[in-house]
Amino acid sequence: MSNLYRQVRETAIANESPTDSSPHEIAAPNVFPDLPDFGATYEDKHSGIQGGWIHVSISETTEVKNRGGVGTLSFDKNGDLVDYKMVLEGTTANCAGGKTPWDGWVSCEECRLAIHWQVDPTGTRESKLHQFARQRCGHFEAFAYDVRNREMPHFFVTEDHSKGALRRFTPDSADWNDPWNILYGPGLIEFLIVTPDSSGTAGRFEWTRDHNAGKKNAEKHFPNTEGMDVYENELYFVTKRFKSMFILNLDTGTYTNQTTRSGLFDGGPDQLQRILGDEGEILYFTESGGRDAGIHGRNAKGQYFTILESPVYEDETSGLAFSPDATRMYVAYQNIGILFEIRREDGLPFDEKSLNVKLRLFSKVNHMLLATGSPMTFFREQRSQYLIRIAGHDRTGSTCLTGKGTVRSYQSCGNGLSRTVSSVRCVPPIGSTTFTSTSTRTTTTASKHSNCDDNPHRDHPSDTTGHCKRYRLRGTTLPNNKSGVRVTTNTGHVLQTDLPRIMGGRDTAPQPIETLLAALMGCTQATAVFVARKMTPRVVLDRLELALTAERDERGALALPIETPPAIPARLQRVSGTVTLYAARQERLSTNELMLLREQTELRCPVANLLTASGCVMEVEWIDGNAKQA
């Protein structure tokens, strides 16, 4: 964490101190929190700045106890930063939280013996513990409310724990003439119990005072709940363990459960923010990890889309919020501590038609050096005019939207320390497809099926036959065994698969999924040897030992009725295990060598590439066997 004194424009140059071109002076020597988590915006009605707003940024830091907190960034009507201050300090692991209906903020601690605070974003009122704080026993995450019945309002909190029960607080009384005290009085705390039907994607729910029953139900059906939101009579919350979203109808006591494993969304869903557009509500998600964490959305038709990603920052996106007019999106990459402001150059708000797009956030790194011992620290703003390009088509098949946008980033820079800062640009995916559409159907013009660069195909035809590998196999059902298949390759090798007897097979051969896992092992072995041989300096591998476990949700394959597409994907959902490498002559691999081997093998192995592209989570640890034996 570092002191903050002024806003610095984008004109910082590598190895030179940036110049101060801020239109406003910021003199408050406050700290900008590390590990920014949840975010929200409020119209600024207290500072005398017409049309301005306040952005709340939460610190989830746990490295030093009581060093977390809540900070606020104040912007004028032009979106320029005019003030910064901490409104809550001395807390630990502040995570998510949420708005109150009276423009307050509830900050939830996500740690052992965690508590809740009610915070005034303007800093006018003192931060206080509220009723949920009487149960110092949760890894609390997000806060939401249902105040349609003002005589009996309900307030909800999720818990990011494998046995984290979802809580509902109902105050004994609610004085709306003094709403800031509603959460401080006595009331009833209950816990969610869901009972799924035979499909597993819907069911009924109820509330119980039994905390243990709530924990057991959460562990089974919705462990590690994260973001939460309420809109009219529906409560939305996501569970990152199962990568799914629950939608509870608060009036009927029924719910549905939908997967968030869609498109290019490979990490766990985290926070939720809603924007109301012409087509109804749009829920935007941040992403907890993943290879290229980003921002994703779900429209009123239940369609998912991706709006932003970063293959550079393998990080958690957080702090998702929108300016009051929805023209500016705020999102933080948590581990590096940068808050981005994203706008569309066409000036349209983010509640326009959803796009089937995935933007890649690349980093061109510069270094800004501050003299050792310098009393000056900087809150860095970066600005470029070419940063975002959006190209895609909405999944309704009606209109193709294209446009550009700009990005700002805000980052705290260490006092007297060298700090790397990033010059950022967003571009469409490499080799992406350009879509056009008509009113009745969508036509596609795809990029060439070729991995060549812009140079001519000098050594092979342009139709890629010179570098396209094909694999031809023939399969026939085994005699008297409809679940078994005998496969012959065009090179003469014979493979066979079968099912266990409990699944109606004869158990005469490995299952198809086991064969797929075996293919992953074989492909990993061959690719790792190739990568090691091409490294500089060259690495000679003696052998690999692989121990892998694959997981899938069988409801994806067995869901009925058969005419309805299953809500849960049938593919593998997770592959975990270890790959232990033994270099020749008992040589030990450096950390960089092991990292390069893993990264390039996973990228170049066709089977691993196939699995990750499908959305399967790869949690495979690579180990230096010689170092382990030493």
TrEMBL record:
Residues 450-462 have a biased composition (Basic and acidic residues). Residues 435-468 are annotated as: Disordered. InterPro entries: KH_dom-like_a/b, OsmC/Ohr_fam, OsmC/Ohrsf, PhoX. It comes from the Eukaryota. Residues 435-447 have a biased composition (Low complexity). This is OsmC-like protein. It comes from Phaeodactylum tricornutum (strain CCAP 1055/1). The lineage of its organism: Eukaryota, Sar, Stramenopiles, Ochrophyta, Bacillariophyta.
